[in-house]
Amino acid sequence: MLARSLGHEVTGSDANVYPPMSTLLEKQGIDLIQGYDASQLDPQPDLVIIGNAMTRGNPCVEAVLEKNIPFMSGPQWLHDFVLRDRWVLAVAGTHGKTTTAGMATWILEACGYKPGFVIGGVPGNFEVSARLGESPFFVIEADEYDCAFFDKRSKFVHYCPRTLILNNLEFDHADIFDDLKAIQKQFHHLVRIVPGQGRIIWPENDINLKQTMALGCWSEQELVGEQGHWQAKKLTTDASEWEVWLDGEKSRRCEMGPGRRT
Prior knowledge:
Elements: H1 2-5, E1 11-14, H2 21-27, E2 31-34, E3 48-50, H3 59-66, E4 71-73, H4 74-83, E5 87-92, H5 97-110, E6 116-118, E7 130-131, E8 137-141, E9 146-148, E10 151-154, E11 163-166, H6 180-192, E12 199-203, H7 207-213, E13 220-224, E14 230-234, E15 241-246, E16 249-255
Parallel strand pairs: 1-2, 3-4, 5-8, 5-11, 6-8, 11-12, 12-13
Antiparallel strand pairs: 6-7, 9-10, 14-15, 15-16
Helix pairs in contact: 6-7
């Protein structure tokens, strides 16, 4: 959708094409092809984005390599053509990425910033899962899964965030990571590329993140939790009302409004 918004003609293929994603893409003027017959590469495209589910032996992959058609991973394309000049707010972690990225996007939208975003689902407040936006700010759900068969780094190392939210960290994706330390290594690669005047926001009570951050951090940090800079103190047993505290001082009182939530 982002490439289409940039004015490119876009087609895409998958083993199975079905709603709701097929409907969403077709509304954006993107042609969908079911299957991987190499004939879809004729006429030859200017660039092929290869997803991380594709492997050697796939007819389209083999045709791309044989014909020397330019190709790259999706995360690399995002970096080169969308994120390079943006203030990237990345949301990473084992759980809650989609929800947190959606909330961050809506907060910026409500403040009038009209941010760009890439979220792993269609948020209830928007009709699409990705858009270019009209401001420097770009929110991205930053996944630790690998990029492609030719780039086994985590996707998020391509995103170069200036603001990084780390929700939590647990062992996951046992198909590509041997153990927790392997995941922590990838997360620390992400920490390493946040600028010195950038900011990393993370929960102080997550031992796995604490171990990761102890490997080195060169950016400003904001900690949330009982011993963090930011604290939430509930006022009711059902947590429908609470106070927000910053550095030991009450900032504001909050109430949960009616509605569906995760």
